[in-house]
Amino acid sequence: MSKRFNLPYTTQDLFPPDLSMPSFSQTRPDSISGSSMVSSLPFTPVPNSYSTSSTFANGTSSSNSTQSLHKMFKRFFKPKTLDFETAMWEIFQLIINPRKMYRSQYYYKQYQTSGKNNYARDDPSFLILLTLFLSISAVAWGLAYSPHALDILKLIVYMVVIDFFLTGIMISTISWLVSNKIFSNSWGVTSQNRYNVNYIEWSFCFDVHCNSFLIIWCLLYLVQFILLPIITIKKSFMSLLLANTLYFVSIGYYFVITFYGFNSLPFVNTQSINSNNQNDSPVRTMQLILVVGILPALAVTWFLSLCLKINVACIMIDLYFN
């Protein structure tokens, strides 16, 4: 695999013509895409039932997630195959405009050209950069507040291994189970089955977690580090308000970007457009979970923390630095 030196910024670059794959044009309604736009996507429309193609019949889709993780692991040891330039482009877009990054359909280029039912990255460059950012943040926090080698090492373990990887594995597993359950119920599939064409691989769920965790790193590992002398002032309501707002906004935005990730799947948008009953679409279900469930719960918790004068930043600092 040759490394790209020019990032895709135009529609032609993002959607190169592929004569081997049929294409179709569709107009995405405002309720799904957020704006009126016409896009031409070079992938085959996905049926509502189980696939009868040989790709799924021979069990290929059941191993796509494992193959993707295996390929990603192998590329760790092949620096020439890593595309850090594109990973930096994705990081920049996720910070300033995550919807634009997901709309680019960049992740699905492999699916469009090879026909694989797998939408996760097979390039570990993004994961390497995010892990590096977290490690640098841990070292900076340690040097500022606990300048001992053992304490810095503990911070790296806490921030990288526990906060990012272990928490990400748990969240990815939950979202993997929930998302496949939602899609199965919405499209009349009687059970979650890895041979279903609408089946979402676990590796994609972890990929979405990595994208969403970037905002956590920006607000809680970078911005909080700068504002820490201010947000930890005792008996100051403004410090309490700023600290708790910083935490709850970052967590809420994490779930919003996660919603963008699942909503961007090609077959999700295709099925939602073709569905006669929009109330049964998985996009509608995910919107209800986010707008009616998660965000209101975070808002209520934020309000209660202010009323009870619980400074979340102070609690986390005490937890990390004893």
TrEMBL record:
Descriptive protein name: UNC-50-domain-containing protein
Entry's transmembrane regions: 126-144, 156-178, 214-233, 245-268, 288-321
Membrane topology: Multi-pass membrane protein
Cell location: Membrane
Main location: membrane
Top-level taxon of the source organism: Eukaryota
A UniProt-annotated Pfam family: UNC-50
Similarity comment: Belongs to the unc-50 family.
Record's keyword terms, sorted: Membrane, Transmembrane, Transmembrane helix
Gene Ontology cellular component terms for the protein in this record: Golgi membrane
InterPro entries according to UniProt: UNC-50
